[in-house]
Amino acid sequence: MKTILAFIFMFGLLVFIHEFGHMIFAKRAGMLVREFAIGFGPKIFSFKKNETVYTIRLLPIGGYVRVAGEDPEIIELKPGQHIGLEFDEEGKVIKIIVNNKAKHPNARIIEVEHVDLDHQLIIEGYEIDEHEKLSFDVAEKAFFIMDENETQIAPYNRQFASKTIGQRAMQLFAGPMMNFLLAIVIFFILGISQGVPVDHAEIDKIQEGSPAEQAGFENGDEIIKIDETTISTFEEFQAIVRDNPKTELDMTVSRNGENVELSVVPDSVYIEELDVELGQIGVYQAFHKSAIGTVKYGFTKTYEITTLILTNLGKLITGQYSIDMLSGPVGIYDATDQVVKTGFTNFLMWTAMLSINLGIINLVPLPALDGGRLLFVGLEAVRGKPIDPQKEGIVHFIGFAMLMLLMIVVTWNDIQRLFL
């Protein structure tokens, strides 16, 4: 149950922060945000506030913000169509009843001749059995009523395409940006609560019964040399230990101002996902509390993980890593289960890493991803005119279908690896 709650919290937080970025910058630019969704598929829960419907959906594979004009509007009025109109106090159309007009006895029934809900905001037509053409001004926040469901109209100035290249690019970039900011905040919180790592390779704690304890290491020891290699940072020390399982290492440590020689043989830990054995001696890095160091830690740790993920992504693209190494929701859940068992601090670190990963993946210039859509905005800036919306829509649809196929393959690989 603990893992389930942790996974739901983590997934919800990552998606919420990402989509919140998209939504807040869309609204700042004056776009009409129709829906803010966490998850895909059937609706589990929803409520409406102001212009936006907030939904939680069944499938935990992402989320979305639906902005007016980004996909085809569902309702379209055609000449000859009979509709009902209701008016506000200023005499403007506030409700456009598309069907079930009998449920709206106060509505004025009109046969449509001409409609412009993008720019002029007018409806022209005739009352039944009348020959005089009438023209009605439509309120900017008028609603369609279809099957008793309300859908707000979207004048062109509220649509995605009406905004400047800068506003559209910022709205698309805001999601990944918020993921990076979340990671920085998490590391900032960790820095406040536990301190930040010291600059040198100082040991803070030693696991009971570990190779380090057996070799005679003590709390506060600073590793300054391994064999003939000078050690400046804890990461350098970790890298050598990690790369030398079951191999005796001669270390020089500084203890109370004196150098002490110790020999240790790292245990071998098998990492199934990577099919490698890594060395481990059972020590923890020392931390200290510093206001300036905490701020620096938030940014440097985010940068380090970003660099690591980009390196691994490059290896995946060049074929050095197999697609079998990717994890979907099932694999991430299993990894979360393992991390939760090691404590809340590691869970926060895991959440920050996944947040960075989500931000990076969404910036990859593939159709349907934020990066792919940013690429089209960039092409528009270079060409001086937008790509045909229908052609762009087809590209994104194909890209989305391919991403869903990849998700299925990755999830199946997770299931095979974990359960079969």
TrEMBL record:
Membrane association type: Multi-pass membrane protein
Cofactor: Zn(2+)
Span of domain PDZ: 195-268
Annotated InterPro entries: PDZ, PDZ_6, PDZ_sf, Pept_M50_Zn, Peptidase_M50
Enzyme Commission no: 3.4.24.-
CDD domains, per database record: cpPDZ_EcRseP-like, S2P-M50_PDZ_RseP-like
Domain of life: Bacteria
Subcellular location: Membrane
GO term, biological process aspect, one: proteolysis
Bilayer-crossing regions: 6-25, 172-192, 347-366, 393-412
GO molecular function: metal ion binding; metalloendopeptidase activity
Keywords from the UniProt entry: Hydrolase, Membrane, Metal-binding, Metalloprotease, Protease, Transmembrane, Transmembrane helix, Zinc
Family according to the record: Belongs to the peptidase M50B family.
Protein known as: Zinc metalloprotease
